[in-house]
Amino acid sequence: MTFPFQIQMPPEHNAALPKETDVVVIGGGIIGVMTAWELAKSGVSVVLLEKGRIGGEQSSRNWGWIRAQGRDPAEIPIMQEAAAMWRAMAEEIPEDIGLRKSGVCYLANDANEIGRYESWMPHARAHGLDTTVLTAKQTRDLIPDAAVNWAGALWTASDMKAEPWVALPAIARAAVRAGVTIIEGCAVRALDLAGGKVAGVITERGRIICEQVVLAGGAWSQLFLRRHGLTIPQLAVRATVAATEPLGDVFQGGAVDSRLAFRKRADGGYTLAPEGFHELYVGPDAFRALAGYAKPLLADPLGTRLLPAAPRHFPDAWGTARKWDADRQAPFERMRILNPSANTAKVAKLARDFAATFPQLGPVKIKTAWAGMIDTMPDVVPIVDRAPLDGLTVATGMCGHGFGIGPAFGRITARIVMGKAAGYDLQRFRYGRFTDGTKLHLGPNL
Questions:
Q1: Which domain holds residue 274?
Q2: Is residue 381 helix, strand or coil?
Q3: Dmax (CA) of the chain
Q4: DSSP for 390-405?
Q5: How many domains does the chain divide into?
Q6: Same domain for 85 and 167?
């Protein structure tokens, strides 16, 4: 199946717009879909509105890794719940979502990288993960056909993988069967406010009355919030990914070294991505927020390439409106699906690097390549919290880690909306942590 099929296919979900519901979820990525499903399972009436296609943006463009390894300590227990949810969904959903326990391996080129991996091990042990630091010999035994002599690796055998652009549409269908109303091609232009509280949403098709809204808009979240006088230091970076034609087996799990990441897909090819490389279009929001990103940029000075301007109609393009009337076309209608072009030079290098790593595979032919805009925060962890507006909950800024942990963060977001205990300490994910004097603490650079 050619990627991205969500752009090419007609809408699958086109229910009639209801006049009223309990909760409206904005955004059809993994967070929005899982939030809606969890609400419906609790008997809550919920409508999910997606301006484009379910899974049309970053939730289908990621590497397909489902990992606890290398995560921020505050995310690990949440990821453990997410892993259990993935296993349950694979049993419940009558479609193969590609879920496999195949492990994740971070490959080290030298002793310094081994030291970084060792420094994360106390977190793994504290949460009972099966993560280990492998010697050079153990790494060769794990990936015996590689032409690279790695110094060792960080290895978590219990980590998993799934096929992103297969899994999320299947999950959305399960949510519909549970009672969620999903409408694709329907942008939310604005919140409808009354007395400083959420009273509904105004969409391009009309108004829906509701008392609770969840914003899970990914790279579009900051633009939507700014329309209502709210702001978060969220930016979006372009990440390039490629898919090879079917090749022989060299490793079934997900692995990454200093040059590239690779994962065997269900169709026999490999998903490839450059390690630690992404590109930031400098638009108005980026210009305002760059000072807040100084620490992560300095921590990884070669990992981010700055580009002068975003393409037309991107969320942070210089010409994108920051204010608009709710009865007029909104920016979300001008770009239904955020579909950045891949970095062609990086794609060519990925093919060369993968062929050099596994020369026995022969020529590495790229089947297709794409890019996604990853919504990120200065401390590399998301916001999952009530916003300073009664009735609005925000779940965004997943920093490229949202696919794997998405089911659990969806469940947590649903609990927040229903006024229930989240089940975890969410201090790390507070909405206001960038303005309340909290010292910026970066997540693990793994």
A1: 5-103+158-434
A2: coil
A3: 67
A4: BTEEEEE--TT-HHHH
A5: 2
A6: yes
**Half-sphere CA count of 358, side-chain side, radius 13 A:** 19
Would 446 be classed as within a structural domain? no
- Asked, for residue 62, whether it belongs to a domain, the answer is yes
What would you report as the CA-atom Rg of the chain, rounded to the nearest whole angstrom?
21
Q: Distances in Å between the alpha carbon of 121 and those of 30, 79, 155?
A: 29, 16, 11
- pLDDT (tens digit, 9 = 90+) per residue, 86-143? 999 999 999 999 999 999 999 999 999 999 999 999 999 999 999 999 999 999 999 9
Q: Could you tell me if 336 and 246 lie in one domain?
A: yes
The dihedrals phi and psi of 151, each to the nearest 5 degrees, come to -80, -15
Residue 227: CATH number of its domain? 3.50.50.60
Coil vs helix vs strand at 41: helix
Same domain for 281 and 187, yes or no, is yes
- Structure token digits, residue 353: 């690097």
Are 335 and 313 in contact by the 8 Å Cβ rule? The answer is: yes
Say if pTM beats, i.e. exceeds, 0.85: yes
Those residues whose C-beta lies under 8 Å from the C-beta of residue 257, and which sit 6 or more positions away, are 107, 108, 109, 148, 150, 275, 357
Among residues 160, 157, 169, the alpha carbon closest in space to that of 33 is found at 169
Closest CA to 26 of 6, 7, 47, 43: 47
Q: CA–CA separation, 348 vs 344, rounded Å?
A: 6
52, part of any domain: yes
State how far the Cα of 39 lies from the Cα of 177, in Å rounded to an integer: 13
89, part of any domain: yes
The residue assigned the tokens 């590399």 is 380
- Given 157, 176, 194, which residue is the final one in a domain? 157
On the 0-12 / 13-18 / 19+ scale of CB atoms within 10 A, 258 is middle
Residue type present at position 435: T
Cis peptide before 4 (omega within 30 of 0): yes
**Residue 415 tokens, joined:** 């609990």
Per-position DSSP letters for 63-104, written without gaps between them = --EE--TT--TTTHHHHHHHHHHHHHHHHHSSS----EE--E
pLDDT digits (tens, 9 = 90+) for 178-209: 999 999 999 999 999 999 999 999 999 999 99
